[in-house]
């Protein structure tokens, strides 16, 4: 029985498709060896792992060496469909070279290199989109072309940010295991903080409502202090809960974008803890100054 495959494109999962459908997508330039595929939607590999998907593409290329294309100026040689991925040396793209690119399965061009750079900065051309010029023998993924690859190393200026072009990258399993190994402890601390927050909130409410063994001023101060501690613990627990959720996603997706999101989540937690520590130290300094001032006024 033929195995059907899912495709992951910029974080979106499509399919499953049978081999005939995938071969059709490959012939139209909508599916390349750089795309990620999966038989179960959980474990992802490069499409190049299934060379039979591109056999028909190679045969079609051999039969039609230079097919006419209305998208290409008659003065330029028609590019051949990509049958393999290779890095194009910088010398193959001198100044003034005209480029063609594939956008949503449609061939576009010719355009200058600066126009492709603008598309990259706006998030409209990704690392896996195919490009070609007359100095290249085959269509090649933009991320493999030195003249363009350097633009993917920094976040684009568009709203989508730099993660969109890297969201399909799959991380090594060992790295993901190391990153998610502490998730159990993160969950334990999260639950502990939630329990502590609930207890402090209960103490605060009882102090304000019952005023047990305290005068009114002490009861109000104690109740408010307990409620403040409950709020601080709750915020910290929510930040850790978000981090734990990101680690869970990382264990299944093994995506660069998810790893970055998890690092952002734990960064937010540590910033919050740092702010609390600064406030606590400042509070203790104020209390010490007040106590020293009060002691200096006591009679000898």
Query: Helix share of residues?
Result: 40-55%
Proportion of residues in extended strands = 5-15%
Low-confidence segments, ≥5 residues, pLDDT <50? 60-92, 154-168
| Biggest beta sheet summary | 4 strands, antiparallel
For the termini, the CA-CA separation is 97 Å
Average pLDDT level: 75
Computed structural class: alpha+beta
The beta-strand count equals: 8
SSE sequence, one letter per element: EEHEEHEEHEEHHHHH
Task: List the keywords.
single chain; 300 residues; 8 strands; 4-stranded antiparallel sheet; 49% helix; alpha+beta
Structural description of this entry:
By secondary structure, the chain is an alpha+beta fold. The chain has helices at about 20-25, 55-65, 115-120, 145-150, 175-180, 185-210, 215-255, 255-295, and strands at about 5-10, 10-15, 35-40, 45, 100-105, 105-110, 130-135, 140. Helix 6 (about 185-210) packs antiparallel against helix 7 (about 215-255) and helix 7 runs antiparallel to helix 8. It contains eight helices and eight strands. The protein starts with a strand and ends with a helix. Strand 5 (about 100-105) and strand 6 form a beta hairpin.
Summarize the structure.
This protein has helices spanning 19-27, 55-63, 113-121, 146-149, 173-180, 183-210, 216-253, 256-296; strands spanning 5-9, 12-17, 36-38, 45-46, 99-103, 106-111, 130-133, 140-141. By secondary structure, the protein is α+β, with helices and mostly antiparallel strands.
Present the secondary structure layout.
Layout: E1 5-9, E2 12-17, H1 19-27, E3 36-38, E4 45-46, H2 55-63, E5 99-103, E6 106-111, H3 113-121, E7 130-133, E8 140-141, H4 146-149, H5 173-180, H6 183-210, H7 216-253, H8 256-296
Antiparallel strand pairs: 1-2, 1-3, 3-4, 5-6, 5-7, 7-8
